Amino acid sequence: MEIVICSTADEAGEVAAARVAQVASQKEGPAVLGVATGSSPLALYRHLAARVQRGDLDLSGASAFALDEYVGLPASDPQSYASIINETVTVPLGLDPARVHVPQGSAQDLRQACEDYEAAIKAAGGVDVQILGIGSNGHIGFNEPTSSLASRTRIKTLNEQTRRDNARFFPTLDDVPRHCLTQGLGTIMDARAVVLVAQGEGKADAVAGLIEGPVSAMCPGSVLQLHRTVTVVIDEAAASTLTLRDYYAHTYAHKPAWQRFAD
Q1: pLDDT by residue (tens digit) across 114-172?
Q2: Domain residue limits at 36
Q3: DSSP, res 243
Q4: How many domains does the chain have?
Q5: What's the pLDDT tens digit per position in 222-253?
Q6: Mean pLDDT across 36-45
Q7: How far apart are CA 76 and CA 158, in angstroms?
Q8: What 3-state DSSP class applies to 68?
Q9: Residue 174 needs a FRET pair 20 to 30 A away by CA distance; which of 108, 127, 229, 263 works?
Q10: Sign, Cα dihedral of 243, 7, 249, 213
């Protein structure tokens, strides 16, 4: 696990975007991206879009698979992840909408929709680089505490803390869906590379559990300690409770942000 501590949230987005671009550019043929929603990866997407607009990165042939979707929200709902992915990822990165996949949270047979999603990822050749944020309770995707570390795409009941965290996007807490479809931890671990970005003091305890805590279902993100190729990019606030913070900060102190994944 490679830990990069940045001065600001925007710098963290720049560094994380550089790592995603590096993996995508090194792929022979079109890349397959795993994309996340939430506030954590927004700066990453902005910097990736800037690379596309400058002509430094071509993602026109890439495919993308979203981590999750609410159950019961139609794709046309502005708070559905299908809508958010289209707005924050598909359009800015110049992706072909036909190649961007989101779990079908409005499907009549949700279990079959989960199996179909796993099959679609496999048919695409697997995810080359999975973009992640982390919840304040350590969840990645919607894999809440106590999720199986070997889980696959499935239906999950949202933790009340997660619903409260997401209530800012809805008129009231009662409007926040209670169920979702999410890629499992085992599905996420199949990605060839992972880039996780987190910002702010509110994520500090989750980040500490992810990086330095024991591998435990109580902090689902900690399973990434077992992945071969993980880059964690965080700002100073999110790094504030790390025991080895000074060691991680020194690792890339000699390189400016834009050079950290330039090779």
Answers
A1: 999 999 999 999 999 999 999 999 999 999 999 999 999 999 998 888 899 889 889 99
A2: 2-259
A3: T
A4: 1
A5: 999 999 999 999 999 999 999 999 988 876 55
A6: 95
A7: 21
A8: strand
A9: 108
A10: positive
Tokens 């060691």 sit at which residue?
Answer: 247
**Cα–Cα distance between 34 and 65 in angstroms, integer?**
5
- Cβ(239)–Cβ(202) below 8 Å: no
Instruction: Give the active site residues.
Output: 68, 137, 139, 144
Question: Hunting for tokens 């689902």 — which residue is that?
Answer: 220
Cα-to-chain-centroid distance, residue 5: 18
Are 181 and 113 in contact by the 8 Å Cβ rule? The answer is yes
Tokens standing for residue 189? 């671990």
CATH number at residue 206: 3.40.50.1360
State how beta strands 154-157 and 63-66 pair: unpaired
The number of CA neighbours under 13 Å toward the Cβ of 147 is 32
How far is it, in rounded angstroms, from Cα 147 to Cα 33? Answer: 23
Cα distances (Å, whole numbers) of residue 114 to 36, 80, 111, 245? 17, 17, 5, 39
CB 1 within 8 A of CB 208: no
Closest CA to 193 of 102, 126, 147: 126
Contact 130, 34 (CB under 8 A): yes
On whether the CB atoms of residues 39 and 198 are closer than 8 A, the answer is no
